[in-house]
Amino acid sequence: MAGNSFGQVLKITTFGESHGRAIGVVVDGFPAGIPIQLSEIQAALDRRRPGQSHITTQRKETDQVEVLSGIFEGQSTGMPITLVVFNHDARSKDYSHIQDAFRPSHADFTYEAKYGHRDYRGGGRSSARETLARVAAGALIRQWLAPKGVSIQAYVNQIGSIQTTRPYYELDLSLTEKNIVRCPDQALAQKMISLVEETKKAGDSVGGMVTCVISGLPVGLGEPVFDKLHAELAKATLSINACKGFDYGSGFGAAAMLGSEHNDEFVPGIPHPTTKTNHSGGIQGGISNGMDIYFRAAFKPVATIMHDQNSVDKYGNAITIKGKGRHDPCVVPRAVPIVEAMAWLVIGDFWLRKLEKG
Amino acid sequence: MAGNSFGQVLKITTFGESHGRAIGVVVDGFPAGIPIQLSEIQAALDRRRPGQSHITTQRKETDQVEVLSGIFEGQSTGMPITLVVFNHDARSKDYSHIQDAFRPSHADFTYEAKYGHRDYRGGGRSSARETLARVAAGALIRQWLAPKGVSIQAYVNQIGSIQTTRPYYELDLSLTEKNIVRCPDQALAQKMISLVEETKKAGDSVGGMVTCVISGLPVGLGEPVFDKLHAELAKATLSINACKGFDYGSGFGAAAMLGSEHNDEFVPGIPHPTTKTNHSGGIQGGISNGMDIYFRAAFKPVATIMHDQNSVDKYGNAITIKGKGRHDPCVVPRAVPIVEAMAWLVIGDFWLRKLEKG
Amino acid sequence: MAGNSFGQVLKITTFGESHGRAIGVVVDGFPAGIPIQLSEIQAALDRRRPGQSHITTQRKETDQVEVLSGIFEGQSTGMPITLVVFNHDARSKDYSHIQDAFRPSHADFTYEAKYGHRDYRGGGRSSARETLARVAAGALIRQWLAPKGVSIQAYVNQIGSIQTTRPYYELDLSLTEKNIVRCPDQALAQKMISLVEETKKAGDSVGGMVTCVISGLPVGLGEPVFDKLHAELAKATLSINACKGFDYGSGFGAAAMLGSEHNDEFVPGIPHPTTKTNHSGGIQGGISNGMDIYFRAAFKPVATIMHDQNSVDKYGNAITIKGKGRHDPCVVPRAVPIVEAMAWLVIGDFWLRKLEKG
Amino acid sequence: MAGNSFGQVLKITTFGESHGRAIGVVVDGFPAGIPIQLSEIQAALDRRRPGQSHITTQRKETDQVEVLSGIFEGQSTGMPITLVVFNHDARSKDYSHIQDAFRPSHADFTYEAKYGHRDYRGGGRSSARETLARVAAGALIRQWLAPKGVSIQAYVNQIGSIQTTRPYYELDLSLTEKNIVRCPDQALAQKMISLVEETKKAGDSVGGMVTCVISGLPVGLGEPVFDKLHAELAKATLSINACKGFDYGSGFGAAAMLGSEHNDEFVPGIPHPTTKTNHSGGIQGGISNGMDIYFRAAFKPVATIMHDQNSVDKYGNAITIKGKGRHDPCVVPRAVPIVEAMAWLVIGDFWLRKLEKG
Q1: B105-158 pLDDT, tens digit each
Q2: d(Cα C292, Cα C281) in Å, to the nearest integer?
Q3: H or E, element range at A47
Q4: CB distance A32–D124 less than 8 Å?
Q5: Which residue among B168, C162, D94, D109 is buried most deeply as judged by most CB within 10 Å?
Q6: Distance (Å, rounded) from C-alpha B152 to C-alpha B146?
C-alpha cells in the first residue's frame, strides 16, 4: 500500500518525478465556496523555487502553477482541486553517469531494491522537487483558514553550528523574509549566509533547523489516541526530505525537567482558560488548547556534494561517484515554506475531522 | 473522524478507559497460521504493569489478558484478534475531587472543551493505561516477526539530567532489564534510581529519554513519499502519552553537520551493500536499507505531582488542585515496552504494505 | 488488508466467531453526549436473535449485550464504544464431523484456501452470527439519529415465490412486526409462514427479499463520485450473509423505461423542492434529495439444509455431507433488522462525512 | 470526507469536470516493473468515447490520453501514475440556459444544495465524462493482470424491453464488439439498434442492462466480512452514473429458490475443487472460489431528453426546461467499457490486498 496521500478528511495525493513531465497534487475534501487566488499559490511556490538566491541550486524552473480541476469562477467547488507544474529545465543527461550508481545517503539504493525499476533522473520521485506539490496544496488551505485567524510561520533558527537560543516569542517573525536564509535575527542571518557561501565554495553541504509557530487555532483540534495533533505534525514534518527530528513545546529539553517546573498552570480566561507557561506547546492530550503551537524540525546536510565519494553500483561493484552538476549547499531556507505547508495540511485536515458534539 | 486506530494494513483499534470496565484492542489484518503464546503477551504486559517496582505507581492491577476472538487451536486465523484486560483496582472515588477541575498539563480541559461529556476518572481515555492495549498488540506482532530475525530493543538513556552519551552499539542491551529503570549502564542506572526515589519523596516527577534499536529488518520497508518509515515511527512514538520529541539516526545533531561528514558511504556486501557509517539510521528516502534503525523519544515529567497547584475548573473559577493519591514519579522506565510495542506496530504494518514487484 | 471495518468517519470494527468466546463491535467516531439506553440495543438484538420463533434456528442464545467502553453516566463520550455478546450455546462438537469438509455453498472451502487455518465450528467468522455486532452498532446510531427525524424500516416483501407487488407506500409498515415473517401484508404473511413451515419440514431452505425505506433524511448526504449514497448502501447490504442483489428506486425495472417516463419532475417546495415521482429513490448524483430512499435486497436460501449432499473434503476426496443439526429454513425475516442496521451505519457515516461549506 | 478515491491498496483518485480544463486520474499503489502500452489505454478510451457511432452523443472529443507521471522507459515505477485527457469540444455556452435550473433527475439540485457553488456546465463533476478516468485506470490494470490469465468481458443484455434470456456461457462474447450496441446476440443487437434509433428520433432516452463476466481469477480474492468481493463489485458498479441495481450469480432470482436447488456441489479437481453448478457466481463467503464471477448492472434511461419538462430553478421558481443540445439516447453500450474498468479496479485492489499467510 503506497504512501503518496496525506490527510484523512482533507486529503492530498502528490504525483510526479523530478525530471518527468510534471509535478502535481490532487486536493480532495477541500470545502466549497472558498475564494482562491492563483497568485497566492504562485507566491508560495516562488518561496520554494530553485534559483531564488545565489545560495540555492541554479536549476532554472519558473514553477508556474496551473489548475486542472475543482476551481470554478474563482471559487472552490468541493470537487478535487488539481494543481500542476510542468518541468522545463530537466537536464536528464546530467544523470546518465549515475544511472547504475547508488549515491551515498540518497534513496537510489533503497528505491532500486524496493521497486526494481526506477526513474534515476535527479532522484525521480525521491527528489525534494516533489515538495512543490505540498507547498501548492498548503497555499490553498492558507486561503481558507488564514481569514479565520490562523497563522503559520516558520523560520530558520540554526544552520550548521550557528543558532539562535532565543525562543520564538522574543523574535520578530515579520523579519524572516528579509534575508535569504530566512532567519528573523538579522545579525545571525549574515553569519549563516557566510557559512552557506563557504560551504558552497567547499563543494560541501550543511544542515540546519527550522522552528514553526502556529497561532490562532481554536481549542479542540487533534484526535486521541493515535492521531494526536503533535503526532501528525511529527509525521508531516518528518515526511519532508532530509528531516531527521521533530520536537514540540518543551521538546527534548523536557527530559531534564521536573513536573513542578514543567506543568502549565491554568489561568481563568474568556472564552476559555489560558496557561501561564506553555511547555505543553499548545497541545494537551493530543488536542489543541488554544495556546501557540511551536515545534522544531532538524535537517541533515543534503547528500549531494561536489566531492568524490566511494560507493557501490547496482551490480555490487565498488565505484567512485564524481561530484558534479548543480547542488544546493543548504536547503534549510527552502524548507521553511515546506514546513509551513505541511503544518497547513495537518491543521486543515484536523479542522475537518473535528467531530461535532451530538 | 476519530483516531483510535493505528496502521493501514495491519490495523489496531484500542478501546477502554482507565477506570471503565476494560481496556482492549482489536488487531485486524494479522496473518493467519501464526502460533501465539498467551504467556508472551502476558509477559509484555507485566513489563508495563503498574506496581512492578517501588518507584512506580502502586495501583494494583494484575493486567491479566484474555482473548475474545481470532485465535483458534493456538494459532491466528486471519480474523480480528481481540485482547482484553478488565480493570479491577479502579478507585474511582479518588477522582471525585477533580470531577470539575482541570489539572495542569493533563488533558482534562481539552477533552472537556472538545467532547463536552467526559469520563474524568483517572483521566478516562487520556490515561496512559490505554497503552497496555498497544503493548498487547505489539506482543502479538513480535511472535510473528521475531522468528524472522527482527529484534526491537528499547532502553532508558536519560532520566532528568542523568544521561549516557554512549551510542547504543557501545552498550550491552541485554542488561536493560537488570535494573528497575531499564538503563543498560548499571552504574548510571543506580544514579537514576536514586534520582527517581528523591523525586518521589519530594512529591515531584521527572522526565527522561528512551532510545530504541530495530535490527534484522529486510531492505525495502517504508512507503514514499508521506509514509516514510521514520515518519510513521515518529507518529507512533509521539502518540505515546508524555512524549515530546523524536529523532532518528543522526537526529538533531545532523543540523550542525556537513554533508561530507554525514554521508554514509556504501560498501559492497552480500546480499546487498551496507554502509560504512550509519548516520542515516537505517533509512534512506523513507525506506529501510538493512542497517540498524535507531531513534530517540523524549518524555516530559508526568503531570500528576503531589504539590498543590493553581488551576481553573470547568466553570472558569480559579481553584487549587491538592496533590494526593497514587502517582508515578517517573514513567520513562515503563515507557520502554510501550516504545517497543509502537515500533512493532509500525514494522508489522510496513511488512504487510510492502508491494510485491509486478 | 482485511475487511472487518465499515464506515469512514463513523467506523465500526466487528470481531468474534460463531462458537468462539464472544462476538463484539468497536464503534469509533460516535459523537459525544448522546444519551444511550442499553435496553434499546438489547431490543434490537432480540429482533435478530436465534430461537425467536418456531421457524428460526433453535440455537439457544440470549444474546445479552455488555458495554466495555465509551459510555459514561448514560451518555457517549466520543471515545470508542465497545459492545460485546458472549457466546453460550456453542455446541462445538456438532461440527466435528465437518471439520475437514467443505459444505456446498458455504465459505468452508474459500476460507481454507485463503487462510490455511480456520475456526470451522459453525462457520467461525463466516457465520451470520457476526451480524449481531452490526445490529448492536445500528441500535446505537438509531438513538442518535431517530430523534433528528430519521426513520429506517425494512420488511419482507418476498419469500420463495410468494411476493407482494405493492410499493412500500401502499403498505402499513407499522404492521411489520405483527407476524413472525415480518411482512406488513398480513394475508401474505400467513402464506409465507406456511411456506417456511413446509420448507422446514422438508429439511430444505428458501430465499426471499427485503425492502428497506429510509425517511426523514436531510438533503446532501452522499459523496461523489465513488462514495455515492446508493453505492455505499449496496456495499453495506451485499456484505450481509446470503445477499445476492441490491437495487434502489426504479431499480432493475429502470432498464425497460424511457427517460420521459423515468424523470422525476421537480415541484417548488419549502424548504426545498420535492419531486412529483420518485424513480430516483431519493438520491440524485449519489446525494440524498430529501425524498424517501427505498431499496431492495435479495437473499438466497441458506446453504445449511437437512439433505445429504455430495461434496469434497480438504484433502480433495469426494464425500457426502450428512444433513443434521440445527438449521434456519428461511433467514429472511431475521435479515430485516440486519438490513436496517447496515442502513443506519451508512447514514450515520455520511451524516458525519457531510462537508461543511467553507 | 469526499469520495473521489476508489480502492484500498491499489487506489485511484479521479479529478476534473465535464467542461473544465481536463479529466484525469492518479493511480497509486500500482506495482513496479509492469510494461505499459499507452496505445492500449487509448483503445480503451476509444471504446467509451462520445461520437463513436451515430447512436451516441455527437460531442467531438478525441480523448487523447497523456501520461504525467509514474511511467519510465515504458514501465511502471511503483510511483503514482497520472493520466490526463484535456477537454476540447466544451461548448460551455450550451449550458448558460440551465445555469440556475435544476434539470429533472440530474444532480443539479443536490450539488447546489450540498456545495452552494457548482460548475453547472454539462453537469460539471457529476457528468459521466468523469468515467473516462476510470476507463484509463482500468486499462492500466488490464495490462498487469490479463497476462496472468484474468479476463473481464461485459456486454449489453438488455435495452428497453429487448433482452436476451440466455446465460452468458451460451453466448459468444467475442462477438460483443461486432455491433454498435455491444450485444453478442447479433439478431437481438439489430432490434436494439432500431429501438435506440427510434428513441433518438423521439428525443427520448431508454435504459438497459449490462452483464459482466470475470474469468481466470485465483481462489482467495475478497476480504471478510464487510469487504466481500461482491460487495465491492456492487459499490464499484453502482458508482457508475445512471446505475440502479446490481446482482451476481443467481441474483434476484435466488429469492424464489430452494436451498436444495441453489447449493453448488463441490467436485474434486486439480489444483482445487470446482462446483457442479455456479449459482454462487464464483464467490463464497465474499471470497473468490475460482469459478467464473458474473454480475448484472441495470441502467436507467439518461436524464437528458429533448422534451420540454417542468422543473424548478435555484430560487424556487417553477420553470420549463427546454429540450435542446446534444444527447445520448442510450448510454448502455458506452457503459460496457466502464463496467469492465470498475471490475478491473476491484480485482486489482483485491489482488494486492490478499494477505500472505504467515
Answers
A1: 999 999 999 999 999 998 999 999 999 999 999 999 999 999 999 999 999 999
A2: 6
A3: helix A38-48
A4: no
A5: D109
A6: 9
Nearest CA in chain B to C118: B77
Residue D89 located in a structural domain: yes
Domain presence at residue B2: no
Query: What residue of C is the nearest CA neighbor of B7?
Result: C1
> Which chains have 3 or more CB–CB distances shorter than 8 Å to chain A?
B, C, D
Question: Which positions in chain C touch A357 (Cβ < 8 Å)?
Answer: 31-33, 78
At residue A325, the pLDDT reads 73
Interatomic CA distance for residues C332 and C329, integer angstroms: 9
Q: What CA dihedral angle connects D230, D234, D237 and D242, to 10 degrees? A: 160
Determine whether the interchain pair C259/D2 forms a contact, defined as Cβ–Cβ distance below 8 Å. Answer: no
pLDDT at D232: 98
Q: Which chains touch C (3 or more CB pairs under 8 A)?
A: A, B, D
φ and ψ at residue D40, rounded to 5 degrees: -75, -35
- The answer to whether the Cβ–Cβ distance between A124 and D8 falls below 8 Å is no
Q: Mutation test of the interface with chain B: which of A102, A244, A294, A356, choosing the one with the most B Cβ atoms within 10 A?
A: A244
CA atoms within 13 Å, Cβ hemisphere of C10? 26
Each residue of C203-231: b (16+ CB within 10 Å) or e? bbbbbbbbbbbbbebebbbbbbbbbbbbb
Contact between chains at D358 and B34 (C-beta distance less than 8 A): yes
The domain of D129 spans 9-356
Please list the residues that pair with A101 across neighbouring strands: A313
pLDDT tens for D75-95 read 999 999 999 999 987 665 667
Three-class secondary structure of residue B295 per DSSP: strand
Q: Which residue of B has its CA nearest to D76?
A: B358
Count of C-beta atoms within a 10 Å radius of residue C8: 19
User: Is D4 contained in some domain?
Assistant: no
Query: Which DSSP state fits B34?
Result: -
Write out the three cell numbers for C292. 424517501
Distance CA C282, CA B136 (A): 46
Q: Which residue ranges in chain B fall short of pLDDT 50?
A: none
Number of domains in chain C: 1
Torsion sign across C-alpha atoms B225, B226, B230, B232: negative
Nearest CA to CA, how far is A266 from chain D (Å)?
Answer: 35
Q: Is the Cβ pair A355, C32 closer than 8 Å?
A: yes
User: What is the DSSP secondary-structure string of C125-175?
Assistant: GGSGGGHHHHHHHHHHHHHHHGGGT-EEEEEEEEETTEE--S-GGGS-GGG
* Residue D299, φ and ψ in degrees, nearest 5: -120, 135
Residue A34, min C-alpha distance to chain C (Å):
6
**Residue A224 within a domain:** yes
**C-alpha cell at position B95:** 477522582
Q: How far apart are CA C15 and CA C68, in angstroms?
A: 14
Q: CB A77 to CB D13 under 8 A?
A: no
- Tally of residues, chain A: 358
* pLDDT digits 0-9 by tens, D24-71: 999 999 999 999 999 999 999 999 998 888 888 777 788 999 999 999
Selected residue of C226, C294, C307 to mutate for chain D interface (largest D Cβ count, 10 A): C226
Task: Find the closest chain C residue to D8 by CA distance.
Answer: C1
Cβ-defined contact of A357 to C33 (cutoff 8 Å): yes
Place of cell 430523534: C147
Are D238 and D246 spatial neighbours (Cβ–Cβ below 8 Å)? yes
Substitution target in B1, B110, B199, B248 with the highest count of A β-carbons within 10 Å is B110
Q: Residue D11: list chain A partners with CB under 8 A.
A: 2, 5
CATH code of A38's domain = 3.60.150.10
Rounded to the nearest 10 degrees, the angle between the axes of helix B332-353 and helix B229-238 is 140
Residues C256-281 have pLDDT tens digits of 999 999 999 999 999 999 999 999 99
